[in-house]
Amino acid sequence: MTSTDNGSGKKGRPTPKRKEAESKRIVSSLAPVTTKEEKKRAKANALAARQANRIAYMRGDENALPARDRGPARRFVRNYVDSRRSIGEYFLPIIFVVLVLTLIPIAAVQLGSIALMYSMLLVAAVDGFVLSRKIKKLVKEKFPTEVPKGLGMYAWLRSTQMRRLRAPKPIHKPGDTNF
Hints:
transmembrane helix, 56% helix, 0% strand, DUF3043, mainly alpha, single chain
């Protein structure tokens, strides 16, 4: 029992009005009070920072890259993949053609287009497997301290992206050998 409790269950004082209780309550805000102009300015600054970071990422600046793309071995893999043509980068456009061909109500055309799709898939998978093994071998030679784990899959996934959609943007043209 508290000192104000007289044993009868009453508190000995009237209940405060809501307005009084709310005025006594301490309201702490985590965010500082800002004006609309300050919010607008902060939003514009954040947008500019995001755009600058995106440009640096697409350019390939090491500091702007996510962890999965950082390091000299990953840069080497990107440059190697970008310096060659692969069947995987044409897979998506071929799938679009197959989709259109399956709309033609001729069974032979539909069957042929689906056969084309599966054959492209098989060739892309074999190309990715060969590329993966070759990348691991080249990385072991060029970067002896680097662990090549995951680099083969990284190379294969990059090789299956259409060249124009790769991020960071390709620096080398197909056929370049100086990287």
